[in-house]
């Protein structure tokens, strides 16, 4: 007897025989779970969470009884609280029914190699947090001034700082630090107005963390505030994916669970951020307390969820957020584990779903300072567009969904070893060849490539190639009349194209791209394309001078493939620029220069927000854009590589 | 068989037969414990805490095994955490060994009638927190400004407020409040610069809480910030008494328990304050969230303990505190349950143990604005003195101990019904007559007055009378040669004077004042008197123009009796003024007027601190002052009532 098992957040699913352990199942389905102790129930690293509730869409009811019971040995490894929250060890827990499993970030293996690595950014160093060394006169009976007043005088005398206050936590440490260090100490001062830390002796280390909260992926950059250098980069899945893949489902969750939903979602992202904070600090050899400030970008929904603000109203007309401007909140007040008196600086947001991440892109790419017209596409679960130049800037948000990042794709997986990353299809034989991460060679259809799945960028590759080779029709349907044993009707009657035969994989299963995958990509690219079209009309332009593709995933997308499937309007390919994780770069820029924060607030207010859904012709434009290059005329730059008209 | 039982914080102790319940024992010893359900184990109001550890001074070892075990019924009433923390129900727990019991504030009956009631104060209303009503234009697609920016514009337009920020918690509520109230709302603004609350509709209620943290007693005044009116007064024992009666023992506790002591002490006072906050709000019909600000005064040790700052260094030369100036801390940051975004304004401190409470006295009594020289004595567990006028002010702190407040006195108790509050002794017959709180009549030695103990002010009365009647010698010894059946050698060989015979009491025991009580009062008054003498020498004056007695207990002390025992130097009796709880009044003044906060910071820095212990002749002066009026010449104003020289 077999049961269905689904793994979140990857969305991978499949059938496994009754009695299979969750760990075994994960391996068969290409889901990565840590298990360094070799199933000895010692390390506890393979913790997974059994998600409760019904999943009517899939016809699955999950409950604890669909798993083998916990024995004493497992209970020893797990904390009581964990057991209560349905956490299990994947290595020993056996499947006895349909089940939905959430693999927490900490239990996932496979380094994310989608480049969230930091690009070099040029910015003058003018951080909000600075360190000042002072030597204080020791108190005596004739000079019994309080410790802080003593520090205040020294900071005024030696560094010209006036009207200082001191954070509660720093004050608590001051008496001991002063006396331990013989009154020689380093004060960490925020905005030249508040002492937020005191350390004994002379300390120059001054670090901050720039964070980009994406709907699916979060990235953080531990940054040296003295040099601008990135000391460590950490990324993780946004743990809120367990509440839904896109922001709309998370907002819905908040609305349906009025008293607890928002708190849960806020708690979840804060917990995730704290893991990232701890990992980044550890990686670079610091304590979390060494992180004196954090800057955060994210779309408006993520912004509200992070701050614990009801996101309901920014999702409906007239799309007003609770706060447009940037804000500083003491880390301790909402449980972010950096320096307790340190601040979290949340960048300003624009409107609708166009949030601080987009403002980050503006800081990084600066279309507002250019004469030429830029079209900036920030590709994520929520795609954001900017169109304009120094005279005028428009922005909009497109609900692309997570498909472009490889989620909700039948064989989608993270860009980790075993993931297919490049695909070519011979338009004559319709035979594919592909490359797998961790292997230099292209496949030949015979060799076992140990493929496990397809990463985000390769999905676009694959679909573009399928279209170019005539496997897909203009409307996106798999053309079943095309003769190839790779084109077939799959299980559940879904047409599919076999990319890798079972014997080429490590998951003992053919890897396919199916009709559903194509539809998901069509929806995503249609959203982006129609957004571009409407924005261009709004700005009154027929073309743009440069196309900037932002987003960590964006950087890995093949620009030809993306244009071929119609992700964005035609333009000379040499005008297409990958600008990396511009949102994250913006967070770093704001971390390093306070003038840029001011600039961010100004530009955020200048951008005009276009709510696509309110445009009269939105449905028409979207419908058209769902098609594969619907008008060949619109893609003059692709003429040579477009498929033969069938 | 009998066992010794001691009740904290009253310090009452006695022998009870084995098998007596704690509740019964408390009644016999005049300790008040709530028990409204009649020992049915239903209400749980008689919770007491069994304190662990050895008490070598008393030769008592307390442990759980000295009590009857818990049964199921008791366990049902108590929470598991309470049981673990040795909380028991007094009504059913029986004594099977020597034991020390702490009666928490919530379990004590008997209204504290020592007036912590608020005096009328004159102060211009200029509170830090104000309420502003605004009607916001509803957002639409052409005006999609964020909620806060919308509020900001309205507050600027209607009330001239500029450069506002908004507190994190207020921001969280803003979207819902705006839409619930049709964009008509009231913003609570702190210092005209931060929105700390938003409420639907027009709200005028604007309240704050002024708190005086004494070593033994804490008082709080719920105050209407629009009118200055006191809406409710709450007082409680400082729950830190379980760590020691005076601040030095609490500081020692912190030092001996390096990692946990300070946190425990801070947690204890915060928990206590929260009880007071909740009671005050409830009494006046508000929620705790309605309290927008809190001002706090207390001595330097209490100041540091409240803020979680190591108090070690301010207790040793050169007596430097961590911070002299006032400070504002968000209530939420240290767990004070008022409006989460509201501030706790802690008044500035002077030096040594002369803290914010003394600054409060300065705000209330304003000796710094007078031409005449004031001697201000703030009587508490830590007595604080101010001497001076507009030209110069000296301050010092005297470790009086809790005896003047009736603690650590054999039959001392709170000023509650049953407490002896006034005493007279006939100098011929040596027979006393006394009055009991709750009874208009004076005692006659026969009637059952249902006396339970002696309250603080009556102790001073009693000792002054004993001295006047010749029962006490100048050195404070009970004169055993005086013939009276009331003068006798008590248990354990301690001389005593019987104030009330067993049949006059409700505790089935003679009530006495014994030699130990006299010693405790001698130490306290000696500390105050020698402090006055040294301060006068320092200021270069031989007399003062007015004597202000501050402190809630101080207000109930008979000024003649107090001068008679030598608590302060001689002066015309009509120059003695009771100024009530001036420290608490100062907290109220600061709550109502922000200019006064500035004034407080200025005057706190002007006061010159005198560290008595560093004065060469301190021991001599203190030794002399321990005597009863050591030089009759020093008390010309008492000539008529001084005892005959024996």
UniProtKB/TrEMBL annotation, chains A, B:
Give any GO molecular function from the UniProt entry: iron-sulfur cluster binding
Enumerate the InterPro entries for this protein.
2Fe-2S_ferredoxin-like_sf, 2Fe-2S_ferredoxin-type, Beta-grasp_dom_sf, Corrinoid_activation_enz, Raco-like_middle, Raco-like_middle_sf, RACo_C, RACo_linker
2Fe-2S ferredoxin-type domain residues are 3-107
Classification via PANTHER family: IRON-SULFUR CLUSTER PROTEIN, IRON-SULFUR CLUSTER-BINDING PROTEIN-RELATED
Supply the name of the protein. Answer: ASKHA domain-containing protein
Q: What taxonomic ancestry is recorded?
A: Bacteria, Pseudomonadati, Nitrospirota, Nitrospiria, Nitrospirales
């Amino acid at each position: 007897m077999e049961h269905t098992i689904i793994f979140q957040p990857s969305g991978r699913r499949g059938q496994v025989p009754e009695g299979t352990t969750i760990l075994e199942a994960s391996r068969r389905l290409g889901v990565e779970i840590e298990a360094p102790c070799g199933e000895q129930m010692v390390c506890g690293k393979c913790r997974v969470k059994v998600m409760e509730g019904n999943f009517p869409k899939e016809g699955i009811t999950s409950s604890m009884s669909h798993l083998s019971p916990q024995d004493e040995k497992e209970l020893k490894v797990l904390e009581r609280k964990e057991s209560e929250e349905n956490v299990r060890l994947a290595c020993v827990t056996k499947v006895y029914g349909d089940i939905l499993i959430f693999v927490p970030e900490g239990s996932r293996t496979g380094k994310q190699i989608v480049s969230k690595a930091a690009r070099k950014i040029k910015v003058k160093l003018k951080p909000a947090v600075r360190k000042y060394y002072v030597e204080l006169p020791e108190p005596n009976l004739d000079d019994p001034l309080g410790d802080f007043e003593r520090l205040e005088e020294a900071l005024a005398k030696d560094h010209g700082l006036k009207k200082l206050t001191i954070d509660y936590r720093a004050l608590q440490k001051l008496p001991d630090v002063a006396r331990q260090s013989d009154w020689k100490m380093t004060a960490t001062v925020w905005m030249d107005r508040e002492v937020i830390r005191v350390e004994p002796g002379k300390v120059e280390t001054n670090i901050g963390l720039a964070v980009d909260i994406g709907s699916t992926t979060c990235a953080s950059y531990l940054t040296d505030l003295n040099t601008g250098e990135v000391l460590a980069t950490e990324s993780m899945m946004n743990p809120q994916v367990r509440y839904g893949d896109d922001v709309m489902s998370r907002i819905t969750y908040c609305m349906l669970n009025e008293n607890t939903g928002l708190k849960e979602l806020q708690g979840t992202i804060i917990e995730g951020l704290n893991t990232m904070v701890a990992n980044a600090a550890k990686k670079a050899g610091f304590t979390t307390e060494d992180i004196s400030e954090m800057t955060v970008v994210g779309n408006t929904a993520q912004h509200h969820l992070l701050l614990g603000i009801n996101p309901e109203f920014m999702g409906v007309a007239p799309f007003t957020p609770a706060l447009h401007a940037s804000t500083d909140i003491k880390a301790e007040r909402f449980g972010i584990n950096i320096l307790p008196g340190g601040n979290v600086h949340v960048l300003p947001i624009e409107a609708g779903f166009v949030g601080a991440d987009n403002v980050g892109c503006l800081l990084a790419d600066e279309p507002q300072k250019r004469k030429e017209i830029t079209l900036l596409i920030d590709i994520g679960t929520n795609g954001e567009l900017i169109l304009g130049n120094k005279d005028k800037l428009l922005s909009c948000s497109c609900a692309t969904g997570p498909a472009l990042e490889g989620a909700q794709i039948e064989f989608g997986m993270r860009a980790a070893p075993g993931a297919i990353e490049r695909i070519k299809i011979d338009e004559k034989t319709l035979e594919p060849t592909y490359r797998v991460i961790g292997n230099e060679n292209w496949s030949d259809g015979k060799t076992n490539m140990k493929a496990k799945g397809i990463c985000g960028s390769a999905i676009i590759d694959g679909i573009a190639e399928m279209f170019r080779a005539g496997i897909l029709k203009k409307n996106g349907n798999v053309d079943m009349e095309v003769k190839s044993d790779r084109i077939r009707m799959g299980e559940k009657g879904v047409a599919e194209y076999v990319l890798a035969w079972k014997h080429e994989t490590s998951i003992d299963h053919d890897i396919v791209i199916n009709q559903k995958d194509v539809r998901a990509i069509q929806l995503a690219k249609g959203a982006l394309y129609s957004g571009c079209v409407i924005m261009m009309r709004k700005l009154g332009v027929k073309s743009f001078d440069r196309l900037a593709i932002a987003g960590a995933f964006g950087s890995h997308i093949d620009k030809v493939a993306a244009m071929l499937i119609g992700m964005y309007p035609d333009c000379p390919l040499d005008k297409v620029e990958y600008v990396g994780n511009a949102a994250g770069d913006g967070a770093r820029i704001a971390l390093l220069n306070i003038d840029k924060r001011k600039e961010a607030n100004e530009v955020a207010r200048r951008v005009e927000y276009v709510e696509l859904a309110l445009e009269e012709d939105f449905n028409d434009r979207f419908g058209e854009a769902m098609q594969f290059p619907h008008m060949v005329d619109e893609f003059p730059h692709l003429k040579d590589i477009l498929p033969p008209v069938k």
